[in-house]
User: Fold this.
Amino acid sequence: MVRTSLLTYLALGLGSTAVLASKCGVATGSLQPVANFGENPTGLDLQIYVPKNLAPNPAVILALHYCGGTGPLYSQQSNYNPLADARRNFVILYPSTTHDNNCWDVASSKSLTRDAGGDTTSLANMVRWAIDEYDADPSKVFVTGSSSGCMMSNVMAATYPDLFSAVSCYSGVPAGCLAGSPGASPTTADPTCANGDNRKTGPEWAALLKGMYGTPEGYTEGQYPKVQTWHGEADFFVNYPNLAEQLKQWSEVLGVSFSKNETDTPQSGYTKIVYGDGSKLVGYSARGVGHTVPVHPEADLQWFGL
Ligand SMILES: *[C@@H]1O[C@H](CO)[C@@H](O)[C@H](O)[C@H]1NC(C)=O
Assistant:
């Protein structure tokens, strides 16, 4: 009996040591709030999911909720956490905004400009905090999201291309599509973009995106992240033409052009739209799917190289 309880005690002791995977001792295996991740000019909240027995130098995924959502809700719906438990090689940041009907600010110049004190600044600081806290591999930082979260994924890749190496997101719009709109939510935004009526040429979209880094040439010190973007052909909320507009934008920025379509990939009814050799830019067009395309966590991790 004594022996058993001693073993139990030791096991519990080891267990509780193992949960302290971060410098500040954020617990593992469940969603945890992060009180202080640095400068947070727009007052965003952050929750983090760290798997038990996290491997050294993990990757970081920034996962952005849809309008009206929250980080905790997105953590339940996106299904990355069980994959983090299985692989143990990444942590997931689930921020929340409570402004503008819980939509990310993808409209104001403050947010559409690097280091200008908008939502993008707060989100970039979360990523920097996580890299430091978990000794993460800075070459393995990724952004994903759905709807408003996909709009913001494109904007994060435009404003902080140095932080991210890949984007995979669902049912969004090009970076800068809502520039100048009075808001970024269904009830506050100029509806032109979501209606699919903000059409530009590739070079026009690319110039808009590059300007968000703070110089007309954009990010020239390194590579822009590779991009995978998903959209439903029956999306009448963030209308389907926004897939083609995003692909025009990234095709120009990444310097790759359309090469082929692969039908029924990764599943029946989806078409994989391949640019170049498929290593930098891919679109997924989902037939019969509305708003939003369900998250495909395995396909995202594959794109991220995890
Ligand atoms: C590739 O697939 C997309 C989505 O279904 C379609 O809009 C486009 O016309 C296709 N391109 C070619 C060359 O077949």
Summary: The longest helix spans residues 2-18. Residues 261, 271, 273, 285 surround 2-acetamido-2-deoxy-beta-D-glucopyranose (CB under 6 Å).
